[in-house]
Write a structure and sequence with these properties.
heterodimer, A: mainly alpha, two-stranded antiparallel ribbon, two-stranded antiparallel sheet, 10 helices, disordered C terminus, B: mainly alpha, 95% helix, 0% strand, rod-shaped
């Protein structure tokens, strides 16, 4: 009973301080007046968020979009994490898995099941590919929440965006996925398989712009919300975290599913290929 | 280019993802999948072994049951044979005992008859001697020819009966 008193006293102090800070901030906002959002040019902000034309960072001596730097940082972090998992966790894997092992196995199983469910054969390669793509899309989308700062070539500070919020990153993913599907069709079914894939020439463009649009929409909504001070209380928690997590999961799933479906069509035997599920455009 | 599309940056993005995909596949995806495949194979092998053992158990059980049934039949036959033998032996013993008992009984009856005869002979002899003694005593006091004749007749009669009984026993 005696030990609870200091804790409740501390809690009371914390509540008083917290409420004081909140009331003080609200009072300051009311006294100064809620800005109407015209202090910064929204058009320029949006244009830069979409096109990344203004702010460039240096990478390997090239002036590139900050998203490319984000992509390499993300890749480095993911490879280091994978290496640590490989060296520390994987040798300790047991027949009856623990929590972390279950998480790893579920992730591998999830993408393997998508591959097996959509491809009649040669699922090992596409499973590994969509695993990497899914992990990359998810973590690179979540990456924007970290708000890591970088210095532009003009000496300004800029928060690193999600790699796929850059049209070049999205196009790279779309075309790479198309090449993988095209290559698989060519290797497994010969020229007929490749032609079957070439028939859907809009595939890389549609995949790229779907990915880019999805990522960009989240970014634009977040930028808009942050642009107005009045919306900066509480709402960014929902918009910035929940929305980002949601579209990270959704985009990872959608890209993995699309690649595996198109891959399945490309590698399907000629007769069975006509009966396979029609991929969405 | 429109939309700030840059081929070099696209290629750099591709290079980045190719590095990531290769690394993740080699470092993480393949080892985890290999572990899972090995575990699945181990479980399948165990399952196959269990299935094989179950089949072997079923076979052994059937074999055991067949043997048990044969054994039960054999035991039942042996029991029936033993019961039959026991019954025959018992019957033989009973018959033998009965015969022996009959022989013992017959001998006992014979012995008893002989003993009875002996006792009767002895008793008759004694009675005869007593009668003779009494007769002699009586004759010594009141001897008449009729009484003497009657006594002789009685004596002869008794002697004949005794001789007849002896003949019968012989």
């Amino acid at each position: 009973m005696k030990t609870n008193k200091p804790r409740s006293k501390g809690r009371t102090v914390f509540l008083i301080v917290w409420l004081g800070v909140v009331v003080g901030l609200l009072a300051a906002i009311l006294l100064i007046g809620i800005p109407q959002g015209e202090s910064e040019d929204l058009r320029e902000l949006m244009q830069d968020a979409v096109l990344h034309e203004t702010n460039k960072v240096s990478l390997f001596g090239l002036a590139v979009s900050p998203a490319l730097l984000s992509a390499y940082i993300m890749t480095g972090a993911l490879l280091v994490a994978a290496l640590l998992i490989r060296l520390i966790a994987v040798p300790r894997f047991r027949t009856v898995p623990g929590r972390f092992q279950t998480l790893m196995e579920k992730a591998v199983d999830f993408f393997s099941d998508i591959a097996k469910g959509n491809s009649p054969r040669k699922t090992g390669f596409v499973a590994a590919y969509i695993f990497s793509a899914g992990v990359y899309v998810f973590f690179s989308t979540v990456f924007e929440m970290l708000g890591i700062q970088a210095v532009t070539t003009e000496g300004k500070s800029v928060a690193l965006p999600a790699p796929l919020a850059d049209i070049n990153g999205a196009l790279a993913m779309g075309f790479l996925s198309f090449f993988v599907i095209f290559g698989a069709g060519l290797v497994v079914n010969g020229p007929k398989g490749a032609l079957k894939v070439l028939k859907d020439f809009s595939l890389p463009v549609s995949m790229s712009f779907r990915l880019f649009g999805a990522l960009l929409s989240g970014l634009i909504v977040t930028e808009l919300v942050y642009h107005y001070t009045a919306l900066s209380f509480g709402l960014p928690v929902l918009v910035g975290v929940v929305f980002t997590l949601l579209h990270a999961v959704i985009q990872a799933y959608v890209l993995s599913m699309l690649v595996s479906i198109f891959y399945g069509e490309a590698v399907a035997p000629p007769k069975a290929g006509k009966q396979t599920q029609q991929a969405p455009q | 280019m429109p939309l700030n599309i840059d081929i070099v940056q696209i290629l750099l993005h591709m290079l980045n993802f190719v590095l990531l995909a290769g690394g993740l596949t080699l470092i993480l995806f393949n080892p985890v999948r290999r572990f899972m495949d090995e575990r699945r194979r181990t479980f399948e092998e165990r399952e196959a072994e269990n299935r094989k053992n179950a089949q072997e158990n079923e076979r052994l059980k059937a074999e055991y049951e067949a043997k048990l049934l044969a054994l039960q039949e054999e035991t039942a036959a042996a029991r029936r044979q033993a019961e039959k033998d026991a019954a025959e032996t018992a019957k033989a013993y009973i018959d033998s005992s009965r015969a022996e008992a009959a022989a013992i009984l017959a001998k006992a009856e014979d012995d008893a008859e002989k003993r009875k005869e002996q006792i009767l002979d002895s008793a008759q002899t004694e009675i005869g001697e007593l009668v003779i003694g009494a007769t002699q005593k009586l004759l010594g006091e009141t001897a008449t020819p009729e009484r003497t004749q009657a006594l002789y007749d009685a004596f002869l009669d008794q002697a004949e009966k005794k001789a007849a009984r002896k003949e019968k026993h012989v």
